Amino acid sequence: MLLSRMRTDESGSASLEFITVGLIMLVPLVYLVIALASVQSAAFAVEGGARQAARVFVQGESEQDAEAMAIRAVEFALADHGLTGSDVQMSVSCTPQPNACLTRGGFVTVRVALFMPLPLAPPALGEAFSIGVPLSATATQRVSRFWGSG
Fold it and tell me: Are 70 and 89 in contact (CB under 8 A)?
């Protein structure tokens, strides 16, 4: 009877099981929270950058000045969220005249795209595989009907 009781005696193993299972469950959960927070931050940065870029573009004196201000607005929005503007792509499209963006009453659409690498992903894998999330945002603003009349 003593031998059978020793085989089934599990006193002290509950804490070991709790720590083991806890770590196995907790580490992926913490990584998931960190990854989602960084992707959400980048999504806010891209969306805010597109919105601000469209707003400042329609206020530019010339198209070159407007584009430079839009690029600065995107870089500023990314910097607010701790990102660099090295991997960002910005494109500007205009309607109704694609060649003349700053036309009275016209619309300017700014699209900002960014590839957000996942945190703690090994750089060696990033070259062979795309370990990250592609993000993009689009914003449209109307050029004032009084543009250029000042």
Answer: no
Spatial distance between the Cα atoms of 110 and 89, rounded to a whole number of angstroms: 10
80, 81, 87, 88: CA torsion to nearest 10 = -60
| pLDDT digit string, tens, across residues 25-77 | 888 899 999 999 999 999 999 999 999 999 999 998 889 999 999 999 999 99
| Helical H segments across the chain, by residue range | 2-8, 13-57, 63-80, 123-128
Tell me how far CA of residue 100 lies from CA of 40, 63, 117, in angstroms: 35, 8, 36
Cis amide linkage into residue 96, ω under 30° from 0: yes
Tokens of 48: 């805010």
